[in-house]
Amino acid sequence: MEETMSTKEAILSRLRSNTRETYDMPSLKALHAITYPDPVEEFKTKAQTVGGARLLEAKKGDDLNALICQIYSDAGIIASNLPGVEAQLNPDTVAQAQDLETADVGVIQGHIGVAENACVWIPQTMKERAVCFASQRLVILLSKENIVNNMHEAYARIEQSDEYFCDYKFGTFISGPSKTADIEGALVYGAQAARAVTIVLF
Amino acid sequence: MSTQHSKAAAAYLRDEAVVTRHDQTFFAVRQKRDRMAQALPEWEQLRETADQIKRHTATHLAQYLEQFEANATRNGVHVHWAADAAEYNSIVYDILRSHDVKKVVKSKSMLTEECHLNSSLEAKGIEVVETDLGERILQMMQLAPSHIVMPALHVHREDIGDCFRSKIADYDEIAKGYAAISPEPHDENDPTFLTYVARMHLRRQFMEAGAGMTGANFGVAATGDVVVCTNEGNADMSTSIPRLHIVSMGIEKLIPDLSSLAVFQRLLARCGTGQETTVYTSQFRGPRPGGEMHIILVDNGRSEILGNPEHWQTLKCMRCGACMNTCPVYRRSAGYSYTYFIPGPIGINLGMLRNPKTYSDNVSACSLCCSCDNVCPVRVDLSSQVYRWRQQLDSLGRADEMKKFMSGGMSLLFNHPLFYKLALRLSPLVNWLPSSLLNSRFNPWASGHKMMKFPKKSFHELWKKL
Ligand code: SF4
Ligand code: SF4
Predict the structure, then answer these.
(1) Which of A186, A199, B46, B459 shows a CA-CA span of 20 to 30 A to A18?
(2) Structural domains for chain A
């Protein structure tokens, strides 16, 4: 432990003595980031083009389980801890994260949608977040009311309220299915994580 | 006498088809980046802000590091400090050993490359599995990365297919599984099929591993968060299945707060790969339930760079790769022609900062076209830095051979028609350079005479138009 302290102190003192002139933090107020006449429409377009996700519009009160069946009719094992979702696996109660690898479809709740790039903020609200990644396919629920223009607005929300970093110490923006272009630049969906994503807009 | 880079580049240039493909692949990424830039009216303002935030953070780094450590510790994270590669490697090993870990899954990190972590762990009997598809391909083929973001784009599908068939034990079983979900006949080297093979192979690794390692694209001082961006989701698979998460973070990756994070998140993928965003932008604030999270803050020369008045701005770099994609020399000589493990404009400079005697060959790999400066999201003064290194070659005892090489540059151009055509196409850009740069005694093309003005259209271009 003592040695760790000395490394830390040595690094910090080198940094202090090697700092010559200093620069002020710029004000971000002057940065006028892009906004859209209709952020929901922009989000819908971007989710399908940029994200490569499917998009489904639902009405409040629609039967969620019927919707999931309709989206992925061949789904075997569904994993979710959302109230009202009929699931065979619950990420709150599985013995270990590995168990979620068998999930065909994970159903999770998005809290913010970003119009400029189709990112959806998913705070960890389940014990094992592997449901967001290891499931073969994902259904992300999102309310239209929670769509913002750009990442500045999204991070401002996350910064200002605890509700966007809820129960666990993790959150992620997901914009669509896992993808790669590592083999000769050819775009392929379904790299390591979910190979398909459907966003259900309420 | 020529430099290592020029010799390697000349050898590379012999296969025109390979060169052209490499060039076009990366130029296409550069063009995608341009479309991203044009789509945002605030683009230049965003770059300027990013530059200013990085300047500010780099010159207040000690205070931000202390703040970061305090917040991360409060969040339940174990924070370690490593002065150099050896200390870093031994911290990682100690953590893994204390958890009796035999296999580690790892997402891409240039820092671990810089510190030679994999070989250090493997020597001690710990299996390291790269999980980024490109990195995994290279690891199985025992090749080094040729680019920092798209590390295996130079490898051809046939070779990847051969490698998978010979090295992945359950290849046949996986291929059968693919036939069940995709019954149409397919080429055995089809990228979709090969990606599926890798997916199934890697999924097994995630299940078996005792720890997940990631780099950090950003560390947020105000919250203690670490942010990791990937398209494949491999960093998330690596950290949501094994319970132990080790983050390796260069101390320059720090940014002040979440408002700053928005600026950098918006720039990173747009600049690096020409995408609006990476698929995953994951924010780690602490360990998983029942898990453990460690962050190792690595110096390894960075605190010294801060004191270098001519090169401290390399600390602003966020490793997006844009400068490589645009660099005409990189595109036409490829990663392995450079002697430092990071190639291209930023690699020339980082190599010189690592060890100027060892890596000075790379400073010749630049036509001073300034394109890198114009695409860098944090406005690192890349080409001016390369120029300054050339000025300093005298004191390294490398100037004479380098000057001879650079004078020999013209014969290199005339002997290699591809280089020649490229240089001609770029020559109008030279008009933009300040004359102090052009007429220096270290520009052998300028020695003894003023630099000529290049016409806006080169003769070749005009001739083709007729
Ligand atoms: S200035 Fe040099 S390093 Fe930068 S893009 Fe041009 S040739 Fe490459
Ligand atoms: S120097 Fe700039 S362009 Fe090059 S990798 Fe770093 S941030 Fe990207």
Answers:
(1) B46
(2) 37-201 (3.40.50.10420)
